[in-house]
Q: What sequence folds into this?
């Protein structure tokens, strides 16, 4: 672990003698596992623009990196079925391309940096001057001595620095250390993959330059693999019929069909399905279903009651207001959906204006 974000906190402490009142002490708010500079962000953006249209080419060596969200089995099947003679390897010196996922990188690492004082942790935790600010016992929410022992640095914001100096002038020692402009990769919930691979991301640029390796983005691979597979009204009707089937295996086949569709061209139908059917959002932690969910989750605007029920009077206006350019497709989907539920083609046409 790289370090912790440090701030101070003042709250009542339970003493045997309540007259002792309050005590001010340090607390750690975030555990930091890496940091991203503005230079790294700018360099990545340049690489993205230069490589965003790259495609798989035959007779090349590629690495499906941990920064990718693509299912390895799906990639291997595509390579074998099309006799591309592409080798998957991790030997950097043999590589032609890294495969990465732009959305994952954007969500995990491409955030605006902030100013921090970066200070060796021993300056505070091994210094008798500040001993009285450090709690003797662990606090589940605020302080953990094992965490501190694993850290190398503390990161302090300029605002926190001013607050600390206002309670004790000894904290002016902070001014002896550099003020850096970093985005700190912390241990917020759901960031385990970002934490695990932050060093790989930072070192990626040096490897690209040293070995002249290009980038392939896995969403581009998905477009190529699924370019002939697009949801239309007939496929949508089949999917609804399969979803309404009580047989578990039939429903799983329907989910598998959806994962194999080209995302952009199928987007309006996927938006309808994933906003209406809650269970479609339940996905494997790995593989193609996870990749589809990553793409579609930002288009989900319907949130359910505890019974996972959705009402058409709220469902349709919500998605139409969000995506008015898809309104006619949504209404066509609604017509098909209703006729299947009614078990008769009562509705022939719905037109939007």
A:
């Amino acid at each position: 672990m790289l370090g912790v974000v440090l701030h101070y906190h003042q709250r009542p402490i339970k003493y045997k003698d309540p007259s002792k009142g309050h005590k001010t002490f340090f607390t750690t708010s975030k555990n930091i596992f890496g940091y991203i500079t503005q230079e790294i962000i700018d360099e990545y953006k340049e690489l993205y623009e230069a490589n965003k249209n790259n495609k798989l080419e035959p007779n090349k060596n590629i690495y499906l990196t941990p920064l990718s969200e693509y299912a390895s089995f799906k990639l291997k099947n595509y390579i074998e079925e099309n006799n591309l003679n592409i080798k998957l390897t991790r030997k950097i010196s043999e590589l032609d391309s890294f495969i990465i996922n732009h959305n994952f990188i954007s969500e995990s690492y491409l955030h605006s940096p902030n100013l921090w004082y970066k200070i060796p942790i021993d300056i505070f935790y091994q210094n008798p001057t500040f001993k009285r600010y450090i709690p003797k016992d662990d606090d589940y929410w605020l302080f953990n001595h094992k965490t501190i022992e694993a850290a190398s640095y503390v990161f302090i914001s300029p605002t926190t620095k001013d607050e600390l100096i206002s309670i004790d002038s000894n904290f002016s020692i902070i001014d002896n250390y550099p003020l850096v402009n970093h985005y700190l990769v912390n241990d917020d919930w759901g960031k385990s993959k970002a934490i695990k691979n932050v060093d790989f991301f930072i070192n990626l640029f040096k490897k690209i330059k040293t070995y002249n390796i290009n980038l392939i983005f896995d969403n581009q691979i998905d477009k190529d693999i699924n370019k002939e597979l697009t949801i239309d009204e007939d496929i949508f009707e089949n999917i609804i019929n399969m979803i309404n089937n009580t047989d578990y295996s039939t429903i799983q086949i329907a989910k598998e069909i959806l994962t194999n569709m080209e995302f952009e061209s199928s987007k309006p139908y996927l938006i309808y399905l994933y906003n209406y059917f809650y269970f479609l959002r339940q996905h494997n932690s790995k593989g193609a279903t996870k990749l589809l969910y990553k793409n579609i989750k930002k288009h989900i605007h319907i949130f359910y009651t505890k019974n996972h029920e959705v009402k058409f009077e709220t469902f349709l206006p919500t998605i139409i207001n969000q995506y008015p350019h898809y309104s006619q497709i949504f209404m066509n989907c609604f017509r098909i959906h209703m006729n299947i539920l009614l078990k008769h083609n009562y509705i022939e046409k719905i037109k939007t204006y």
About this structure: The beta strands are 3-12, 22-37, 61-64, 87-88, 97-100, 114-120, 153-156, 179-186, 214-217. The first helix runs from residue 38 to 51.
